[in-house]
Amino acid sequence: MNPIAERLLSRARAQGADAAEAYLSRGTEFTVKVFNGEIESLVSAASRGVGLRTFSEHRVGFAYTSDTDAAALDALADEALRNGRYNHAEEANVLPEPEVIEELSGLYAPDLGSIDPQRKVEFALEMERVATSLDPRVRRVSDVVYSDGAGHVELANTRGLDVGFERTVAYGVIDAIAEQDSERQSGFAFTYSRDLDGLDLAGVAREAVDNAVGLLGGRRVRTARVPVVLHPDAGTMILGVMGSSFSGEAVLKRRSLLAGKLGQPVAAPAVTIVDDARLPGGLASRPFDGEGVPARRIELVKDGMLLGYLQNTYTARRSGGQSTGSAVRSYKSVPEVGVTNLVLQPGTQKRDDIIGRVDDGLHVEQLHGLNTVNPVSGEFSFGVSGHWIRDGRLAEPVREMTVAGNLIGVLKLIVGVADDLRFRFAGGFCGCPTVLIEELAIGGD
Amino acid sequence: MPLLDPSLADAVIRRALRSGADFAELFVERKRNQAVSVEESQVQRVSSGNDRGAGLRIIHGGVVSYIYTEDLSENGLLKTAEVAASVGRRGGGRFALGQVVDTPHPPQEVELDPGGVDVEAKVELLLEADQAAREKGGEIRQVAVGYGESRQEVLVVNSEGVQHQDARTRVRLMVQAVAERNGEIQTAMEAPGAQRGFEFFDEASAAEYARMAAERALMLLDAAPSPAGTMPVVVGNEFGGVLFHEACGHGLEADFVSKGSTVFTGKVGQTVASPIVTAIDDGTLKARWGTLGVDDEGVPTRRTVLIQDGVLVSYMFDRLRAGQLAHPVTGNGRRQSYQHLPIPRMTNTFIAPGAHSVEDIIAATPRGLYARKLGAGQVDVVTGDFVFAVTEGYLIEAGRVGRLVRGATIVGNGPRALHRIDMVGNDLKLAPGTCGKDGQGVPVSVGQPTIRISELTVGGTGVVPAGAMRP
Predict the structure, then answer these.
(1) Is B74 within 8 Å of chain A by CB?
(2) Which of residues 273-332 of B touch A (CB under 8 A)?
(3) Which of A87, A106, B11, B131 falls between 20 and 30 A from A60, CA-CA?
(4) Who contacts A250 (Cβ-Cβ below 8 Å, separation ≥6)?
């Protein structure tokens, strides 16, 4: 066991805790931003911290620190216990039964840390160079970033759990600016992988440029109710917002719009949603959750029916079920409930065929104001831009419009799901294909 | 007690300069926080945290390198300085930093250090608020109440000999009420806070804020869906200022300006807003959420007029961008923590009060939306396009406040909206918020009096003509 964890657990026991759990994380970060062919800034660091959860007569205490001196560790244990004294005692406050953790490969690129930083700098410079040379209307970027990190988690508790894993991620981001006459548009694109070599430089540059240029000349259209096609870039963002509704914690506290709907239809039959913590290639994949419960694949919605919620040990005990291995946390927080790789399963139709079904409608490519959704009522009204669909094809660009509705309403109105699954970080690592929504209110002129 | 022995700080700076860098700066931070939450009328969580670390920035020929660590021992810091000197890149460019000239303001004083207040008192405050919200009736199904406090101490030491320290103590209350009727759920939230000690709650009644949240959640159960379309919008005071913050404030931050990525680039001296608009950023206001003695680069904060009578006067600068654009510093160099580089950020930013009462403004509006309270929002800095949730909105009909509507958002373009502000009220108020940019969250105040924008797009689901669909 890690000596820091060992010291914390034994101090907590000595001070009277019935049980305790230490969560240690350390990580490295390398980030380079470039602008105009030069490095703008470079960040390189190693960082660490530890959080301690104590249980005394079913009262939970918690404290964290980034200071791992011996004296600070002892003080941390005492502080966690002191905090716990005020808390409400509940039978559901327990550590999970230790289970065997199956290994999960492919999470870690061992070479990432040893790659010459100069290669990463070159990668960022090349992203900018390519993005500004593809189209005469894109001569500038507002942001080009390469970043990577390695994270190491260790979790130990007084029930004998002592596990850990390492994970890496690398990404490149481009925010391009397209200019034409006096108009400007921004186009954002990203590429993610476990390591530098997995990043798609040409693809991300092309996409950022296309996104910016494609919206030039965009105009508002009339206020109406029309069919809406969601591009995966928009669909993944909406899915990310929905993620919190599947939380058993939100359900318990009546903050989920899916509360009380278990076994009922909450979406159209074409919709199946899973949270798969062991998804190969999923950047949120992990062998175990924030409490050491094995991570797994959970079917949340199948053919439109709500099959279950995500649970951690506490919410599972409260609701009479089993933990789904869905505890999420950092060393600065106790385990909450959250998604990992959240996927709306792809269908069989081609994207073009989906668009082909619409005579007159809106193709939504960018969503703004995702944080304006009311997660409890599910009501939303996003700012959107994209293209008008006329006679089954993408026509002129459209901007400064709103699309409004209710999240559940949208799920029930999905009448087409394409086969073009794409992922992005949006709360969790969310995957969604192009979907067709029968009708939504769009606001414009 | 100083955050770090001055001679050690000095040694770290000297070592960081070894490879010939032009500038080195050490930012040391210690932050303690505590949070208490009550849900289901019971104390759900008391937790506390202790963050301590340092970030070292070196600039060499215009290239910024940054490294941070939690190891504040002499060995740890000197090693960090070595690494910084070795990984740091040198650029060929010349650069200048905006100069730190004024003497710093003293840190904000607090009467009652929240860290020294018994947890029992905090719990009592929350239970009182919980009770007050629940007394609003059986349709209030859930109440979540939280208390948070933090005390952040920072030290900035640099190779120019600057050594400034600051301390920021903040307390905040959060109340969320959930109301339910026939399966329909509505929610409302209040979150007052200040850069003060626990004495803040002598004046701000937790129970009163809880009642306000509960009443609004109940009211929303009776609200009709908001109509969609283009119309005049009256935006309420206080947190309504988030509209200016997002839609214009960010565009006036000098990092965007120096890259030419904002619509306000090169417009100083030009008319960018209607002549009744004056906007200010002021990091010196007493006890405000975004107030600082010195910013996170050691620069004393100040009052900066951004827009005067519609004319763009100044951007907001950190030292690097002040140097790039040859402008005096404004004390807007801020960072979330020692793990982040300082960048230009707002402090307390608001539209100055005008002549009209709210009643005048409503009466002068035959038809439109009264967005009395705004929620979260987002803006695209390049285009200036924004979107905001309206958390309490009413229809305006024949110059009167009419029906409450729910689910409305307002969408528009910041620069265009600035020109379309045609009435400014006399009821300026500020509200706290956390502003996110480049992955860094910092505390700020937003604010404004009630204003009217002659035309904005309103999004909602109500009263929209039906369209055609072929499945």
Answers:
(1) no
(2) none
(3) B131
(4) A244, A256, A259, A337, A375
d(CA B106, CA B114): 19
Instruction: Give long-range contacts, CB 8 A cutoff, 24+ apart: A87-92.
Output: A87/A59, A87/A60, A87/A61, A87/B43, A87/B44, A87/B45, A87/B46, A88/A59, A88/B42, A88/B43, A88/B44, A89/A57, A89/A58, A89/A59, A90/A58, A90/A314, A90/A318, A91/A58, A91/A317, A92/A313, A92/A314, A92/A315, A92/A317, A92/A318
DSSP type of residue A405: E
Nearest to A254 among B45, B68, B178 (CB): B178
In angstroms, the CA A290 to CA A427 distance is: 16
Q: CB–CB of A438 and B260 under 8 A? A: no
Residue A290 is encoded by which pair of tokens? 């924030």
| A145 CB-near residues (< 8 Å, 6+ apart) | A31, A32, A33, A124, A171, A172, A173
Tens digits of per-residue pLDDT, B46-90?
A: 999 999 999 999 999 888 999 999 999 999 999 999 888 877 677
CATH superfamily name and code, A3-214: PmbA/TldD superfamily (3.30.2290.10)
In angstroms, what CA-CA distances link B351 with A322, B243, B282, B444, B453? Answer: 53, 10, 11, 14, 13
Q: What is the pLDDT of residues A372-386, one digit of tens each?
A: 787 778 888 888 999
- Interchain contact B86–A (C-beta under 8 A): no
Residue A418 is classified by DSSP as B
Under 8 Å between Cβ of B253 and A174: no
- Give pLDDT, residue B217: 95
How many CA atoms lie within 13 Å of B132's alpha carbon, on the beta-carbon side?
19
Residues of chain A with CATH 3.30.2290.10: 3-214
Residue B466: what residue type?
A
Residue A133 to chain B, least CA–CA distance (Å) = 18
CB contact under 8 A, A441 and B381: no
CB contact under 8 A, B339 and A184: no
Contact between residue B285 and residue B222 where contact means Cβ atoms under 8 Å apart: no
pLDDT in tens, A414-430: 999 999 999 999 889 99
Greater confidence, B46 or B260? B46
> Is it the case that residue B466 has pLDDT exceeding 50?
no
- Put simply, the chain B residues between 217 and 276 with a CB less than 8 A from any chain A CB are 226, 228-230, 256, 259-261, 263
Q: Which of A218, A124, A437 minimizes the C-alpha distance to B89?
A: A124
Write the pLDDT tens digit of every residue in B200-215. 999 889 999 999 999 9
pLDDT at B465 over 70: no
Domains with residue ranges and CATH for chain B: 6-222 (3.30.2290.10), 225-459 (no CATH)
Cross-chain residue pair B377–A369, CB shorter than 8 Å:
yes
Segments in chain A below pLDDT 70: none
Partner-chain contact A185 B383, CB within 8 Å? yes
Q: Which of B50, B63, B464 sits opposite A225 (nearest CB)?
A: B464
What is the C-alpha to C-alpha distance for residues A58 and B293, in angstroms, rounded to an integer?
Answer: 44
Q: Is B127 exposed, middle or buried (0-12, 13-18, 19+ CB in 10 A)?
A: middle
pLDDT, tens digit (0-9, with 9 covering 90-100), for A207-260: 999 999 999 999 988 889 999 999 999 999 999 999 999 999 999 988 888 999
Beta bridge partners of B156: B27, B164
Q: In angstroms, what separates the C-alpha of A382 from chain B's closest C-alpha?
A: 7
Q: How far apart are CA A69 and CA A80, in angstroms?
A: 16
Quick check: pTM over 0.80? yes
User: By three-state DSSP, how is residue A68 classified?
Assistant: coil
